[in-house]
Amino acid sequence: MSNQIQPIFILPEDTKRTTGKDAQRNNIMAAKAVAETVRTTLGPKGMDKMLVDSLGDVIVSNDGVTILEEMQIEHPAAKMIVEIAKTQEDEIGDGTTTAVVLAGELLSNAEKLLDRNIHPTVITKGYRLAAERVHKILNEICETITADDEDVLKQIAITAMTGKGAENAKEVLAEIIVKAVKEISEDGKVNLDDIKIEKKVGGGIQDSELIRGIVLDKEKVHSGMPSKVEDAKIALLDVAIEIRNTEVEAKISINDPSQLQNFLDQEETMLRKMVEKVVNSGANVVVSQKGIDDVAQYFLAKKNIYAVRRVKNSDMEKLARATGGKIVSNLNELSRDDLGNAGVVEELKIGDEEMTYVRDCVNPKSVTILVKGGSKHVVDEVERAVTDALGDVNAALVDGKVVGGGGSVEVETAKQLREYSNQLSGREQLAVNAFADALEVIPRTLAENAGLDPIDMMTELKSSHESGNKWAGIDVFEGKVVDSWEAGVIEPLKIKTQAVKSASEVTELILRIDDVIAGGNSKRESGMPHGMPPMM
Fold first, then answer.
1. Known catalytic membership, residue 96
2. 54 falls in which pLDDT band (50, 70, 90)?
3. Does 238 qualify as catalytic in the annotation?
4. Same domain, 220 and 350
5. Which parts of 170-216 are beta strand (E)?
6. Is 97 noted as a catalytic residue in this protein?
7. Listed residues 399, 418, 453: the one ending a domain
8. Residues 346, 236 within the same domain
9. Rounded distance between C-alpha atoms, residue 425 and residue 179, angstroms
10. Could you tell me the pTM of the whole model?
């Protein structure tokens, strides 16, 4: 009787394991599927996706990262692709679809090389060389701008919003965006957190406005207060105008009704003194992060002081930057020097909500863009478009470098990359050429999404670039090749460099994986060995 060799199990029995080419194919397929999902959203003629979650909430968007985050993707390789979209969003705020589509195409081209038995290490080395070269080419062909080139900055904002929900008011919004960024700029540095985007359903997108100050989603606390205060002196309080409970547990014994009345009178006197401190500082507007007692509200109203309470910490900080005031944590310390200034503080009704406008600040370092639209879904998509445009304008100002859009920069980079590949010997040359082909997925997709013939457009584009027009790109509205720079289709360089960097890095990471070990559930519900029925 021959000895049978027992199999050796080193992993739990419900672990799934995929190795070698199967693992690579599986990962590439998942990543390509993600890229394919958002590919139709690219460009001015891109389509939108409707996402419905388990609660029935609906999001309509063509913003790459929004779509991918809402899709709740499970596959580990696909999650890596979602990560690069998030990085792109955090770094610039735009170009998420570009990064994802490029990663998908790089993997697709790598798959063809794998089929020709080229080792993954060779492909990753070639891709790394190509990515470094692309970075160099992009920095050579870009144009430089300064904060004074307002027209170019507006065109960057318009380019970012074209094809998104905000398109029919892109000129108005571009004007607002450039003004907002320039307003909060300090020594050439911009912190986009200082631009608050407030959304309101009502009116049209064209009614959106820039407020040189802050809009608070709050109403005045007492009907007897004025609805409008001009030449506002604003006290920013991080302290409640109410009687605090004692820190330790205390019991107050009252024996007869007159003592109770004295106790209540004492409370009222304390609140009156608190209000007097506010009045003595010269403030005619109070913004409190904490509560304001009902009695104190009445006293403030009698003194014609406008007050709002329970304002978010982030809004308080923005108010301080907008009005030049200081946030005070002790009422005894409140003085005239701590007050902020604004031209007008008023309560206005938008839709069915009352809101407090703090506007016409002298030199605001924090401003509000009030976005309006006909429905909640429209307003949400306009907000996403404005966020993208703000990121683009900021990226252009920080680097001072911009490039033409419409697929022009990708075709030019691919052309120069192919010239570079001729200097290489060995199989890396194939990978560099595959990288160049992948770059052309952007103009090709732009053409496809606009219903144009991608082969005709690519042929025309390439011939235009061969004759020396580096900004020749696709005008998807006219269906022809134009000079993107002259057409005003301009994007910050950082969108392209970040997208190429992220896409090539994640591609290299996925290509180097040749073994996927997926663990099962760590604990069985019954605690019984596999295959045994649970005990009754």
1. yes
2. confident
3. no
4. yes
5. 195-201, 209-211, 214-216
6. yes
7. 399
8. yes
9. 52
10. 0.79
The one catalytic residue in 40, 41, 66, 97 is 97
Alpha-carbon torsion (25, 27, 33, 36), positive or negative = negative
186 and 226 belong to one structural domain:
no
- Taking only the tens place, the pLDDT of each residue in 90-120 is 888 788 889 999 999 999 999 999 888 888 8
Does 327 reside within a domain?
yes
- Active-site residue among 37, 41, 87, 96? 96
Mean pLDDT, rounded, for 8-37: 78
CATH number of the CATH domain containing 323 = 3.50.7.10
Distance CA 347, CA 341 (A): 17
Among 158, 175, 159, 173, CA closest to 205: 173
pLDDT recorded at residue 2: 53
Give CA 443 to chain center in angstroms.
Answer: 24
User: Secondary structure of the chain: what % helix, strand, coil (to 5)?
Assistant: 50, 20, 35
Write down the catalytic residue from 48, 315, 380, 388. Answer: 388
Residue 57: phi, psi to the nearest 5?
Answer: -70, 140
Instruction: State how far the Cα of 199 lies from the Cα of 196, in Å rounded to an integer.
Output: 10
Q: Higher pLDDT residue, 250 or 397?
A: 397
Whether 73 and 100 share a structural domain: yes
153 and 30 within one domain: no
User: Does residue 7 form part of some domain?
Assistant: no
63 and 119 co-located in one domain: yes
| E strands, 290-366, in order | 306-308, 327-328, 340-350, 353-359
Could you tell me if 125 and 184 lie in one domain?
Answer: no
Number of domains in the chain: 3
CATH number of the domain encompassing residue 70: 1.10.560.10
416 and 503 in a common domain: yes
Q: Which amino acid type is present at position 362?
A: V
Domain of 137?
16-142+403-518
Choice among 63, 315, 338, 380 that is catalytic: 63
For 520, the token pair is 């099962």
The CATH number of the domain holding residue 201 is 3.30.260.10
What contacts 37, CB < 8 A, 6 or more positions away? Answer: 49, 67, 68, 71
Q: Which amino acid is at 135?
A: H
Task: Give the side-chain half-sphere CA count within 13 A for 192.
Answer: 19
Would 485 be classed as within a structural domain? yes
